[in-house]
Amino acid sequence: MRFTGSDTYVSTHDLALAVNAAITLQRPLLIKGEPGTGKTMLAEEVATTLGMPLFQWHVKSTTKAQQGLYEYDAVSRLRDSQLGDAKVAEIGNYIVKGVLWEAFECETPSVVLIDEIDKADIEFPNDLLRELDRMEFFVYETRQIIRARHRPILFITSNNEKELPDAFLRRCFFHYIKFPDKETMTKIVEVHFPNLKQALLREALEVFFELREIPGLKKKPSTSELLDWLKLLLAEDIPPEALRAKDQKTAIPPLHGALLKNEQDVHLFERLIFMARQNR
Amino acid sequence: MLIDFFLHLKASKLPVSTKEFLTLLEALQQHVIGHSIDDFYVLSRATLVKDETHFDKFDRAFGEYFKGVEALPGMEALIPEEWLRQAIKKTLDRCRTCQA
To answer: How much is the ipTM here?
Structure first.
């Protein structure tokens, strides 16, 4: 099983290597990177390429590790017992399976994505250590042990909002998706906009990378914002010349709202243009 | 030979553990990579370094070990980002008062 990217996802060589290491050694792969660099998409693409089902667990700040395994719906059971429902006798009827349980029971090997693990509190990764190691867990209510039929390929993404505990990090492979360079970015754009005119692409990438170079921006524009901006430019039929205007009035690129999402960043950019004008 | 590599990384203050080293050896045994030093670099980084803030340190340690690169003095002085931000702000404020 080898992964080298797909028709809709451009992968660098080192990312492909990390993915293959995780698949071969059956250990989780932790992926970090700037927002908008394709961390979540990676799991989807690997699942599609390898023809495996994908189980997704999008973690929130309120998520607990137990929810990935199962939940015991005690309230429903109490309500049913008060109504005299026969279902009450069998406790198994009130166990709601979580994402990991579904993945463990899957007939074929599968891919599991735990998205944005750093959103949950600090104990969350630690609570999953044993389950990740052994790929099994114990259901206290029904006294069963649930074991994985096939070890799923585990992708874990993090936005770096919190430090992850060491014990958890030891068990994973790690890859940091760097922001793509111009060459890789060109390939990514070509995958999404196959008929884009070369001139427009060149000018747009120039403006984009220049914008990223500006120091002091609160939020640098990312890959997904570039793709959105290109979509808008195409929709509005903006010619490449408009992006490269030396004319003072149009120094700010058109539709820049797609790239600079922060009012302060727009002001900073305008001020720098003004400064540049003063220096001439 | 790889044990020396592992110990060199530890001596360079990288938080690497024995378990991760054994994982690396397992990966080599399973032929995850060929005989390329670049691939070995990527694999050892993915197995041993779990935080991107350690990447620079790892690169230096790796270079020192495999290519006999001398440790460059003065590389430890990294300009903090916060300082740069303040410098920009000061320049812009000065411009604003100049216009006024």
So the answer is: 0.77
